[in-house]
Design a protein that fits this description.
The chain has a single domain, classed as Jelly Rolls, CATH 2.60.120. Helices cover about 15% and strands about 45% of the residues. The protein has two helices and 19 strands.
Amino acid sequence: MTWLATHIGTIDGFLDDQECADLIADSERHGFEAAKVNSSGGATVLKELRNNDRVVFDDEDLADLLFARARPLLYRGLGDWRLTGLNERFRFYRYGPGQKFDWHHDGYFERHALERSQFTFMIYLSDGFEGGGTSFRGEVPGYAGSSLLVKPKKGMALAFYHPIEHRGDEVLSGRKYVIRTDVMYKRQ
């Protein structure tokens, strides 16, 4: 893991080209729909905030496989929370020209009162597009600037703490694919 700031890190070459292609094909077989945003009124499409496509499905085997690779590189604990695995709920995102996910914080996934996610874990599955970086803004602990841009690379993983404000920058040309899940922790 290359730590770019406190609680923001990347892993180059986390997946190879064939693994990325297989995941893209799998996501296309499931079928994409307009991505929704969670709010107090429930999940709804808010195109001014987010206009990309997504598909959501659960895959425990994939979660176990990816966790086996990532485990040595992830935070083992945060306070009294201890690392347990990756969430089996995967969100595949597809972005075409003009699509983005504006500034937001990721919410946590709670399995029960003693186990919940703390970090977002995402992998860039494609290249050959312009724009589409992941930007962080505000006070990013351990980073001297006022903003931080992660430029996507096919097969690269990105992990970051849920409360850090970020966005998926607009794709200018081409098609961007991302898979996202969560890093799970259990309270000790």
